[in-house]
Design goal:
about 220 residues, alpha/beta, Rossmann fold, 8-stranded mixed beta sheet, two-stranded antiparallel ribbon, 12 strands, globular
Length: about 220
C-alpha cells in the first residue's frame, strides 16, 4: 500500500514506523523539508520525503498526523490532491483542562471531511499516547490493543483495518463517521483520568460478559 504521511511529529513517526516495517511504501510530507527528510531517513527502507502536497498526492491512504488546530486548513488546501483518497484522522481536539474543543460542534474528523469532500475520512488511532503506538506490538494482559475505527466507506474502512493490524493492534468496528465525535470525547475523558487523576480508565468498564448485567453469568450462578 502507498501511504502519504501529512506531518512530521510523534504520531507520524510512531505509526509510519509500523507501516514501513510491514512493507508499505511511505512518503513523509511536511512544511519543514528538513524535518520531513530526517523522519524519512529514520524510517529507512526507501521511505520518501517531500512537501505536504506531494504526500497527499502520493498514496492510496493519507495519514493526517496534524494538530487539531491546523488540520482543517491544511486538508482544505490539499483537497484536490486528496480526492478519492482514504484520509486517516488520528487527531485529538483536547485543550487545557482536558476540555473537548469541538464540544457542541462537528467532530475533528467531520471537519476534515467537510474541508476535503472528495476524501474518504476514517477516524482511528486517537485514544492512546504516541508511546503506546511505538510498542511492537501494543499488548496488554496478553491481548492486542483494540483500535476503534469509524467511517462511512467500506473500502476505506477495510484499508484502515489492515493498517491497524499492521501496527500490531486489533481493529474494532466503531460505526459511521458520525460516531467519530464519541471517540474524540472518549479521548478527552481518558486523558483527563490518566493525566489529571492518575486513574486507570480501564477500571470503569466491567468484563464483556457483564456489560448488560450479570444475568445468568458467573455472578448469578
Amino acid at each position: 500500500m502507498r501511504i502519504g504521511v501529512l506531518g512530521t511529529g510523534n504520531m507520524a513517526d510512531a505509526l509510519a514506523t509500523h507501516w514501513v516495517r510491514a512493507g508499505h511504501e511511505v512518503l513523509v510530507g511536511g512544511r519543514d523539508e528538513t524535518r520531513a527528510r530526517h523522519l524519512a531517513s529514520r524510517l529507512g527502507r526507501g521511505t520518501g520525503h517531500g512537501s505536504l502536497r506531494e504526500a497527499a498526492a502520493f498514496g492510496e491512504v493519507a495519514l493526517a498526523a496534524l494538530p487539531y488546530g491546523a488540520g482543517e486548513a491544511v486538508v482544505g488546501e490539499l483537497r484536490a490532491d486528496l480526492a478519492g483518497k482514504v484520509l486517516l484522522d488520528c487527531s485529538n481536539p483536547v485543550g487545557p483542562g482536558f476540555r473537548l474543543l469541538t464540544d457542541g460542534g462537528p467532530s475533528a474528523a467531520r471537519r476534515l471531511a467537510d474541508a476535503a469532500p472528495g476524501a474518504r475520512v476514517v477516524k482511528a488511532f486517537n485514544l492512546c499516547h504516541e508511546d503506546v503506538w511505538r510498542m511492537d506490538p501494543p499488548v496488554f494482559d496478553g491481548q492486542r490493543l483494540a483500535v476503534p475505527v469509524c467511517g462511512d466507506d467500506a473500502t476505506a474502512l477495510a484499508l484502515v483495518r489492515r493498517l491497524v493490524r499492521d501496527a500490531g493492534c486489533a481493529p474494532l468496528t466503531g460505526g459511521s463517521l458520525d460516531r467519530a465525535g464519541l471517540l474524540e470525547a472518549t479521548a478527552a475523558l481518558f486523558i483527563g483520568l490518566w493525566v489529571g487523576e492518575n486513574a486507570d480508565a480501564r477500571a470503569m468498564a466491567p468484563p464483556l460478559a457483564f456489560a448488560a448485567g450479570p444475568g445468568e453469568g458467573p455472578a448469578g450462578a
